[in-house]
Amino acid sequence: MSHIYQSLRVRQVFGVVSTDDIIPGRYKHASTDPSELATHVFENMVPGLAATFKPGDAISCDDTFGIGSSREQAVSSLLAAGVVAVFAPRFGRIFFRNSWNLGLLAIEIDSLPASEGEIIDLEPSQGLVKTPSGIVHFVPPSTEMLDMVKHGGLLAQIRKQLVKTAIKDISQ
Length: 172
Known about the structure:
Elements lengths: L4 E9 L3 E2 H4 L11 H5 L18 E5 L2 E4 L5 H9 L1 E6 L1 E2 L1 H10 L2 E4 L10 E5 L4 E4 L2 E4 L5 H8 L3 H18 L1
Parallel strand pairs: 1-3, 2-4, 3-5, 4-6, 5-7
Antiparallel strand pairs: 1-8, 8-9, 9-10
């Protein structure tokens, strides 16, 4: 059965968003704790926004999201802030890959007809979002990508597979 993300609160950002906009570079080496970095997300772009994030938030962007550096902290800080999905028409390729590798849903969608604070439901395996304005379709991510998110990211998925293999080997 596919996972349905219910009651996600939409948080909107506008324009092209770089990884520096998500987490300013001056914090990259200040801490390795994503929870600490989460307190600074979007602080140059939308001051005060970081303090308003809560678990189950989804970001909607009207332009390219995550261009720029390959800094994984952009993704890990969003996850630590409570963001479970980002919707945008385009993503920076490295940000897109980092998102899935760390367990953040990066959904390419032309437009998400939902306003700031509105509640949506996401069915990624079906390629649909239920918004107050209706249902919007997108190309669903592959089963492999959804499995990565289900396990909490690529490394967590590999770790679980290795443990499963080790237990199997021990029991033989």
